[in-house]
Design a protein that fits this description.
Layout lengths: L4 H8 L5 E5 L2 E4 H17 L7 E5 L4 H12 L3 E4 L6 H8 L5 E4 L3 H5 L15 E7 L7 E6 H5 L11 H8 L3 E3 L7 H13 L2 E4 L7 H5 L4 E5 H13 L9 E5 L5 H10 L4 E7 L3 E6 L1 H5 L8 E2 L4 E5 L2 E5 L6 E2 L3 H7 E2 L2 E11 L2 E7 L3 E4 L2 E4 H9 L4 E7 L6 E6 L7 H12 L7 E4 L13 H10 L16
Parallel strand pairs: 1-9, 3-4, 3-5, 4-6, 8-9, 10-11, 11-12, 24-25
Antiparallel strand pairs: 1-2, 6-7, 7-17, 12-13, 13-14, 15-16, 16-19, 18-19, 19-20, 21-22, 23-24
Pfam family, one: AMP-binding
Keywords: Ligase
InterPro entries: AMP-bd_C, AMP-bd_C_sf, AMP-binding_CS, AMP-dep_synth/lig_dom, ANL_N_sf, ATP-dep_AMP-bd_enzyme
């Protein structure tokens, strides 16, 4: 079935059922379909056709969801723009051959048209979406997925669901829809809800973990930092989370003792997934496997995902992986090799389960998104008072170590602002520590692990005011 026709077929089934709740507003399946067809007509009138580039800079609303579906119905190349990009990065994204930029202010005008039949016009080899990720140069790279890739996707095509995916879909009676519709993970698990016939719940008050109980949520996705904050809250303020039947945790490695705690405090509902923007989801650990003691693995490969470990590095191939980095052949050549994605993560396969052992790339996951240390180091070192800068990030938090110019003492607030303006808030270090020298590893390279160990055994690092990242993005 062509993408996204499976969703439209699901919305035509049981048409009076609520598809989206937004506060007190309830949108039925028929109403969502009609809204999608009106916005598609408005986009067509604005010049959108097959192959057009359409950027989405919207909040999470029923209209925004309909706009994504409408653009795909027209065969457009959809660019989701998530919060957190700097002005320079936004200029890079929005200046890339777009035909329409959709904002919340434009949606009412787009929807103010007559209903038209939703007729899919895409071609399998055309690009359906660009998923932007941080780049090693500081400018975001766009992972291009085709319409065929999304038609084959492990969540978007119910004919190909494996057992764990089907179980997650069955738990999606009330799916918590929050964060950003630009997120591929949000889109892909929202698909499970719509295809299952569930209701996507958009909360007006987003406070974790309270929102799960208040809205009687049955399934949610979760990044690791937010999960940790939830667990800290639940220790002192237990909640009845019995409505929850599934929670997918993804975005970064999950410490085994915290995974065990999540199963105990939230319930035996945790799914742990590993993947990348380039590959999509690769592996999954189910609640039953976690309960059986599989705490140190990111799980078995999805049914149609292939994983190989070559010289310690993880390589992957799936029907839904990116075709290439959009208009970036040099980066593509480094990552896509003979039809495989070189993840640049390190791991090993044991008894069919993938175990992560490290990251070959110098990258930190912050708020569920990869942030590269190199661009941050270059921005810090570009300050007149800074000689050298090193950035490390265990446990989803960035720490900067700065060697000042002789006789100088840079302003931490000024350095923080410099990074924020150039790279966006997710790249701002939580701490900036001034040091006299950097330890050197046997290879002759700076030993960042030794830097962090020395920092933890020495005086408390200096916090940067306002640099802590929100868990609600």
């Amino acid at each position: 079935m062509s993408f996204p026709d499976a969703v439209f077929a699901a919305l035509r089934t049981d048409p009076s059922k609520i598809a989206v709740e937004h506060g007190q507003r309830a949108v039925t399946k028929t109403e969502l379909l009609n809204l999608t067809s009106r916005i598609a007509a408005g986009m067509r009138a604005a010049g959108v056709k097959r192959g057009s580039g359409v950027a989405m800079t919207t909040e999470v609303t029923p209209e925004a969801l309909a706009a994504y579906l409408a653009a795909w119905a027209l065969g457009a190349r959809v660019v989701g723009v998530r919060p957190g990009f700097s002005a320079k990065q936004l200029d890079h994204i929005l200046g890339d051959g777009l035909d329409l930029i959709v904002t919340d202010a434009k949606l009412p005008a787009l929807a103010d048209t007559e209903d038209e039949p939703l007729i899919l016009t895409s071609r399998p080899d055309q690009v359906a979406r660009l998923v932007y990720t941080s780049g090693s140069t500081g400018l975001p790279k766009a992972c291009a997925q085709t319409y065929q890739a999304l038609a084959d996707h492990y969540t978007w095509n119910p004919d190909t669901w494996d057992a764990p995916t089907a179980a997650m879909a069955a738990a999606c009676d009330r799916f918590l829809l929050f964060g950003s519709l630009a997120s591929a993970v949000v889109q892909d698990f929202l698909a499970l809800c719509l295809l299952h016939g569930g209701t996507a719940v958009i909360p007006t008050r987003l406070k974790f973990p309270d929102v799960l109980a208040e809205e009687q949520i049955s399934f949610s996705i979760m990044n690791v930092p937010r999960l940790y904050a939830m667990l800290d809250s639940l220790r002192d303020n237990p909640l009845d989370l019995s409505s929850l039947r599934g929670m997918l945790v993804a975005g970064s490695p999950l410490a085994p003792h915290r995974l065990q705690e999540a199963m105990e405090r939230i319930g035996p509902v945790i799914y742990h997934q590993y993947g990348q923007s380039e590959t999509g989801g690769l592996t999954i650990t189910t609640p039953a496997e976690i309960a059986a003691g599989r705490l140190d693995t990111v799980g078995k490969p999805h049914q149609r995902a292939e994983i190989e470990v070559r010289d310690g590095e993880i390589w992957a191939r799936t029907p839904w992986m990116m075709r290439d980095y959009w208009e970036n052949p040099s980066e593509t050549q480094e990552v896509v090799v003979d039809g495989w994605i070189r993840t640049r993560d390190l791991g090993e396969l044991r008894d069919g389960y993938l175990h992560l052992t490290g990251r070959a790339r110098d990258v930190v996951i912050v708020n569920g998104y990869p942030v590269y240390a190199g661009p941050i180091e270059r921005v810090l070192a570009g300050h007149a008072d800074v000689d050298q800068a090193y950035v490390v990030g265990p446990e989803e938090v960035l720490h900067a170590f700065v060697i000042p110019m002789p006789g100088r003492e840079p302003s931490r607030a000024e350095l923080s602002t410099l990074v924020r303006d150039e790279l966006g808030p997710d790249s701002v270090p939580a701490t900036i520590t001034f040091i006299d020298s950097v330890p050197v590893a046997p290879s002759g390279k700076p030993d960042k692990a030794a830097l962090l160990r020395r920092d933890r055994s020495g005086p408390a690092p200096q916090l940067v005011t306002g640099s802590q990242h929100s868990l609600d993005t």
